[in-house]
TrEMBL record:
Keywords: Oxidoreductase. One of its GO terms (molecular function) is succinate-semialdehyde dehydrogenase (NAD+) activity. The keyword Oxidoreductase applies. The active site is at residues 231, 265. Belongs to the aldehyde dehydrogenase family. SUPFAM superfamilies: ALDH-like (SSF53720). Residues 6-456 form the Aldehyde dehydrogenase domain. GO terms for biological process: aldehyde metabolic process; gamma-aminobutyric acid catabolic process. It comes from Kurthia sibirica. Gene3D superfamilies: Aldehyde Dehydrogenase, Chain A, domain 1, Aldehyde Dehydrogenase, Chain A, domain 2. This is Aldehyde dehydrogenase.
Amino acid sequence: MTNCIVKNPATGAVLAEIPIDSVEAIKVKIAEGAEAFKSWKKTSAHERAALLMAWSALIKKNRQQLGELITAENGKPIKEALGEVDYAVSYIDWYAEEAKRMYGRTIPAHVPNKRIIVTREAIGLVGAITPWNFPAAMMTRKAAPALAAGCTFIVKPAEETPLTTIRLIELAHEAGFPTAVVQSILADGPTVGEIFTSSPEVRKITFTGSTPVGKWLMERSAQSVKHMTMELGGHAPIIIAEDADLDLAVEQTVIAKFRNAGQTCVSPNRLLVHANIADTFVEKLTKRVDLLRVGNGMDNHNEVGPIINKKGFDKIVNQLNDAVEKGAKVVIGNEFDFDEGADYYFVQPTILTDVTADMKMMQEETFGPVIPIVTFTSIDEAIDVANNTPYGLAAYFFTESYKMGNYIAEGLHFGILGWNDGAPSGAHVPFGGMKESGIGREGGSEGIEPYLETKYLSMTI
Ligand code: ADP
């Protein structure tokens, strides 16, 4: 394969054909990034902050164009795509400020004639690998803290959605970042994974994607002991307690679940509802879900876009068939609009009840607009079911009780919790998972740490 063919997932139309970087070209970019680090790390934090602010301003100026690019190559509704541009830029704004707060410390010495200073410095060249579900935000969430810290940065976007990244890199250069400080490469995942992990010049890998690929990258990176940040798969539960505000729970469930047609790693994959309120809740949720309009994201009225590709579509259909065969009841949905010849795939928002633990969708990430509903009778049972997964990224729960809420929060083994809140992400907060959902956090004051080394200096005076 010499060209990457980028398609619009809503129509199957070809948007662009872009030449793929050869192995040699990738190695040259890595060498240039490593060389550029020598001078980039010496820039002042204030200088880097100013460049980040200039980049941010250009992205804001090009908001509409970037939003349309995201909708074209990813499929999400334009309103969501514009929201993603704002979200993406908020990481740049946040880390432009954080750049100036890479504080060190002094430590009282154990003898009178010594002085001890601890400083923080940039790790080096960072290799980033990003997914297709947030082509802008997953890139800036890594690039902004890396560049703020003084690292140089090379990103490999997903082959499905490289156009947004390419444009963001152009704008970074226009803002004044030297070419070799922030670069993108276009090639298939395994090739880049192989090169990044075996390159001594790449000092850190930051990856957002599936858990098997993350594990593979970690295994291979052991050879050169690289720093790693891993944002991997999720299997988020929503717990609806007996005393929940059901209208709020319905609204927030819809926000959390149907954003990006359910193709986000924090998307709720299982809904656990107290048996005493299950019928009322399902009725309210179904009424709301029935209002969602599915279709091409460029049409302002559509709220649920296409599935990214046939592979993603087949996985969803397979999980739905498996659930129905094993006795799940379809309350709404389980309908599709697709054309394999044209290469587009839409899934109607779907709610299933009578779901059991042996169904695939209760064990694996679905990445589609499907809500399987299970009932529970005690909150401990709900917490156990929620935790019974190798994943630990996001979890949501709805209760009006302060005591119950704290009890659930303390019992859940997940890195991100939403209490009566279906949208807990933000540039100012630490995003990341426990267990097989990942290592490290992105966002907040935590998000710059993975790009910094600690250096300690002991002086005899
Ligand atoms: P998904 O199935 O959701 O696309 P992946 O983990 O396969 O999730 O993809 C996320 C990113 O990882 C994409 O940029 C993809 O090209 C890349 N990728 C896939 N396989 C590898 C690999 N072996 N090494 C490095 N990156 C990879």
